[in-house]
Specification:
alpha+beta, elongated
């Protein structure tokens, strides 16, 4: 795990993470941008309130994305089952075609 010194909303802290420094900086920049936008849109909003609203927004997005991932995983499972069924059907049809060809060859 690596340690990084970061600053979010003018609050300095050190975080430990398995993520690389570029990713950590990107996330910190995104969060600071969201906090700044929220504070400029709502001048009576405190930094703490903006941070809590940002956390709520990010968590809502995470939950939506988790649901989407589960839906996509279910679709992939369905597609995989269909592909496997079609492969089996294809194999059966090939055997039938080969058998029919062999019968035709024997009659000639």
């Amino acid at each position: 795990m690596d340690k990084y010194d970061i600053e979010i909303g003018d609050i300095a802290m050190t975080v430990k993470t398995d993520e690389n420094e570029d990713f950590v900086r990107f996330v910190v920049d995104e969060l600071n941008a969201q906090l700044s936008a929220m504070l400029s849109k709502n001048p009576h909003c405190t930094k703490l309130e903006a941070a809590l609203l940002s956390a709520l927004e990010y968590d809502c997005e995470r939950i939506r994305l988790e649901k989407k991932v589960k839906n996509l995983e279910a679709q992939v499972a369905l597609y995989t089952a269909n592909v496997n069924r079609l492969k089996a059907e294809n194999q059966t049809l090939r055997r039938s075609a080969e058998s029919a060809n062999n019968e035709t060859d024997e009659k000639e």
